[in-house]
Amino acid sequence: MTRSTAPPVTGTVVPVPVSQVAGSGSFVLGPASAIAATGLAVPVAEYLVEALRPVTGSPLPIGDSGDIVLAIEAGHPPEGYALRVAADGIRITADAGAGLFWGVQTLRQLVPPATSAPIPATTIEDHPRFAYRGAMLDVARHFFGVDDVKRYIDELALLKLNVLHLHLSDDQGWRLQIDEWPRLTEHGGSTQVGGGGGGFYTKDDYRAIVAHAASRFVTVVPEIDMPGHTNAALASYPDLSCDGTAPALYEGIEVGFSSLCIGKERSYEFVEDVVTELVELTPGPWIHIGGDESLATPEADFLRFVERASAIVAAQGKIAIGWHEMGRSTNLPAGTIGEYWSFTTPRDDAAAVSQSFIDGGGKLIMAPADVAYLDMKYDESSPLGLVWANGPTSVKESYLWDPADILPGVGDESILGVEAPLWTETIATLDEVEFMAFPRLAAIAEIAWSPRVEKNFEEFAGRLAAFGERLDALGIRCFRAPEVPWYPRV
Ligand code: TNX
C-alpha cells in the first residue's frame, strides 16, 4: 500500500457523514474570529473554544455574533446537524445540543491539526443510523480511575459514540460503592486480575463520571453482572452463596464458575438494593444486569433469576439490558434489550435466544465478538489481548461487517445500536486501552453512525490515516496497523 504524503483536503471525516460536498474557497480562523451562540448552544460553544485552543492559542470569544455560528434550529433528524464552511464563516445548526455537539466533532476533524491553515469550504448534512452507539469498558478485571474513564469518554465523543457501558462487577472485583452492602467494595473491590490493589468508585466518583459523560452527550449504562461473574460479591457476603461460605478473592481469568444462590430470598434483597442504588445514580434509561456465561447456575434457576432481576429493574422505571443468554427466558419484561455477543455467523442458540428480546417488544444491541471485541489481538504479534473470538481481529475485519446482516429477519428496525466491548483481562492501563481501541473503535463508530453503503476498506483506511494524525495531536495512542497508509510522523 502506498503512503500518503499529505492529508487530502476534504472527505476525511470519521465516521463518514451522510453527505459532504466540497465548496469553493476556504475559511481561515483569525485573530478576530468569534463564536456566536445563545441558550442551549452556549455549553457546546464553550467546548468548541477548548477544542480549538491548540489552533487558536487564546480562547475564542463567545457572544451574540461571530464568524462561527452555532445555532439551534428545527428541522434536523434526531442528533443530526448541518455544517457549512464558507469563506466568510462557519455555521452549524441542529435541533438540540446533541446534534450541535456532533457537528462540532466534525468541525474538529476539518480544522487542520495544530496549525492555522485554511479550512476548505464544504457543506455537510449528517445524522446517525443508530440511536445507541456504545463502547463498553470492563473496569472489573482491571480497575480504571475516574480520570481514565473521563478521558475515554472524551475519546468516544470524538467518534460520535454516545453510550459508555461500564462493566462494574465481575469475579475479580466489585467497583461501585453500594451503601447497603459496604463489603462489596471494601473487600470485593480490593483486588483485580493478577492482584495489585483493585479499586472502586465512591458514589461521588461515579456521579462525576456520569456528569462528565453528560457534558459530552454520552449516556452511562452501568452493568452489574449476575447471577454468574459474581465471585467478588460472594467473597464479600457469604450468605449470597448456596453453601454459605465465602470463596477467596479471585485474580485469575477463567469464567463461568460463580453464581448467586438462586433459591435464597437474600439474593433478591441484594438485587433489589443494588438496583435501587444504581437507579439513583443513573439518569439514562438503561440498567445492564449481565446474565452472560452463568455456567455454574442450573438452567431453571437461571431463568427464574433473570426474570426476577429484570422485573426489579422494570419496576423502577428503567429498561433492563442483558447479554443475549438472558433471551433464553421468554418472560422478561416487555422492552428488555438484548446485547448480542456471538459471532457474525451466530453460534449455538444465539440467534434464537436473541429473537426473544424482539418478540418481547425489545431490540438488540449488536456487539459481535469476532469483529467488535476490542480485546482481541490485532495480529499474532499484538503484545496484549485474547484470541478466543476468531481472533486476531484486524482493522479490516472490524470494519467490513454490518449489524443488519447477522441475524435472519433482524434489520435496523430491531436494532437499537452497536457496541464495542473492551474486556480487560490483559489490559491494565489507559495507554493499553487506547492501543486496543484505536483504530478499531473508529470502524465500529462508523458502522454505528454512518448510513449503510457498499464498503470500501481502502477508502476507510485513507480516512483513518487522517484520523490517526488527529489522535497524535491529541496524544491518544493508536496501533499503527500495517493495513492503514498512516502519514509519516512529524
Ligand atoms: C467473554 S462475551 C465474556 C467476558 C470476557 C470476554 C473476554 C461475554 C458477554 N463475556 O466475561 O471478559 O469474553 O474476551
Query: Could you give the order of strands across the largest sheet?
Result: 8-9-12-13-14-15-16-17
Bound molecules: ligand TNX
Q: Radius of gyration, rounded? A: 23 Å
Low-confidence stretches: 1-9
Biggest pleated sheet: 8 strands, parallel, barrel
Total number of beta strands: 17
Question: How would you explain this protein's 3D organization?
Answer:
Helix 8 links the parallel strand 13 (286-290) and strand 14 (319-323). With 490 residues, the protein is an alpha/beta fold. The chain has 14 helices and 17 strands. It starts with 18 loop residues before the first strand and ends in a 16-residue tail after the last helix. It has an 8-stranded parallel barrel with strand order 8-9-12-13-14-15-16-17, surrounded by 6 helices. The longest helix has 18 residues, at 457-474. Bound molecules: ligand TNX. Ligand TNX is lined by residues 255, 292-293, 323, 341, 369, 373, 375, 386, 423, 425.
Question: How would the blueprint of this fold be written?
Answer:
Blueprint: E1 19-27, E2 35-36, H1 41-56, E3 62-63, E4 68-72, E5 81-86, E6 89-94, H2 97-110, E7 119-126, E8 132-138, H3 146-158, E9 163-167, E10 169-170, E11 173-174, H4 183-186, H5 203-215, E12 219-226, H6 231-236, H7 265-281, E13 286-290, H8 299-315, E14 319-323, E15 337-340, H9 350-359, E16 364-366, H10 369-372, H11 395-399, E17 415-422, H12 430-437, H13 440-449, H14 457-474
Parallel strand pairs: 2-3, 2-4, 4-6, 8-9, 8-17, 9-12, 12-13, 13-14, 14-15, 15-16, 16-17
Antiparallel strand pairs: 1-7, 5-6, 5-7, 10-11
Bound molecules: ligand TNX.
